[in-house]
Amino acid sequence: MAKLKSKYFKPFKNIYFIVLLGFAIWMLFFDAHSWLFHHELNTDIKELEYQKQHYKNEMAKDNKAIKELSTEEGVERMARETYNMKKPNEDIYIIEYEDSIAKNNQDE
Question: Residues of the chain with pLDDT > 90: what percent?
Answer without folding.
Answer: 30
